[in-house]
Every structure is written in C-alpha cells, then in structure tokens.
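User: Can you model how fructose -6-phosphate sits in this protein?
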Amino acid sequence: MAEVVIVPTPAAAGELVADEIVRLVRTRPDAVLGLATGSTPLPVYTALRPRLTGVDVSRVRGFALDEYVGIDPRHPESYRSVITREVVEPLGLDPDRIRTPDGSLDGIEHAGEDYETAIAAAGGVDLQLLGIGTSGHIGFNEPGSSFASRTRVKTLIEQTRADNARFFDSIDDVPRHCITQGLGTILDARHLFLLAFGEGKADAVAGAVEGPVTSSLPGSAIQLHPHVTVVVDEAAASRLRNADYYRYAFAHKPAWQGF
Ligand code: F6R
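Assistant: Here's the modeled complex, given as structure tokens:
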C-alpha cells in the first residue's frame, strides 16, 4: 500500500518532498531524478532552492516525464523550456544532465526507444515526482494505457487539453500529441512521490490510491509499486475512505522509518 501523507498546504508538501530529495542527493550526488511539469511539482522546486544551497548538484541527473509532440523546444510551454525555467536554472543543475523526451517530428518514430535507452544507461530513476491529471493520468498516460507501456507517443484526451489550455493563449494551441514515459517506465523508478492538491484532484486520488487497479485510471498503477509516497492536501484527500487511518499511521510513524 502507498504511504499517504495529508498535509495542510501545497507548500508543506513541497518542503517534505524537497527534504527527501536533498537527503538523496547528499547520499548519492549523481542521483537520477524523475521530473514532472505542470502546477503540482512547483512547491517542491520552490522548496528545493534554499535547501540546495551548499549541496553539490553538479552530477545530479534528471529525466522529465513527458513532452508535447511537434512543439518548438524554444516555445515557453514546451516541457523542455518549463524544466529549464523551473528546475535547471533556479536549482543550478547541469542542463546536459537533464533530459526531456524529444518531441520534434524529425525522428519521433524512435524518440521513445532512445529515451528508454538513456534512462537505462543512467541506471534508472531513483526518485520520481508525479502529478495526477483529472482523468487519472500519470505522465501523459491517458485512460486505457497499458501498465506495461514504455515511452511512446500518445494522443491527449480533450479534458487534458482543456486543463492545460491555461498555459497557452487558447486551447487550439495545445498540442494533440505528446511523448510520455509509459506506466511500465514509471513503475521501474525506485521511489514514486505522487502529489495532488485541490478538490479537483480528489476523485483521481481516491481512484489511484483506493480504487481498483485498472488502466481506466492509470494512476492506480501506483498500487503495483513497492515504494510509493502520496502527498496530498486536505481537499485532494477529501474522498479517501481511509483518510483517518493515513493520518493515524503518519502521526505514529516510527522515527527510524523515513520515507
Ligand atoms: C506533467 C505530467 C502530468 C501532470 C498532470 C497534472 O509532467 O506528466 O501528469 O502531472 O497533468 O497537472 P497539474 O500539476 O498541472 O495539475
């Protein structure tokens, strides 16, 4: 079962996860981080900045979950640009060690396989950050995605395009296709941190944590992973049947246990 931690605010979630990332980088300076984009991981990146002062991050490696297909990588909302702006530059990471899937049309047929090869060559992902879409997607694995899937091109559902239209001038500018790590790729990471905030994520969180394991709710794939920490605010936790138990377990967590 995933460990579920219910926190008062997204900032508190960011601090908790950032502490864990700093612990990892201190013990493993060439740690491989799995990076997410969108709004959810921003409190983590914000909390990391002061915490990484004085920590050697020159060897940290990273792989983003996904990228839009056909978007100019210099477009401000390409995930390459977002990762550069929100993660690489503020945290002082080496841009050559941080990769996003290549969404350019030229070579898209083998871009997924290339990305898988690069992740494997890095020794796999140590700590994977995940948000969850209102459709229950993780990465851009929309409902119906195979639990065995690897990095590949997917078609975004209209709900996801509507959810992400806030980053673009209009929904017409939101690409229809993406290249995303598969559920199988994500499940290979050694530790998953799934974060969610706000009422709009409550159904997806309840389905992912307590619902049946089904490709109709791709986030439920986390139930197959041996080491998952779900960090949610009260609103996103509001439909968890066992919320009181999660609170109780966290309040009585043995000090030696860590995450
Ligand atoms: C982003 C990603 C997506 C988002 C999800 C939630 O790299 O893979 O799964 O995590 O769409 O988006 P936000 O955080 O903007 O609500």
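A couple of observations from the model: The chain has one domain: 3-251. The domain at 3-251 is CATH 3.40.50.1360 (Rossmann fold).
User: Helpful, thanks.
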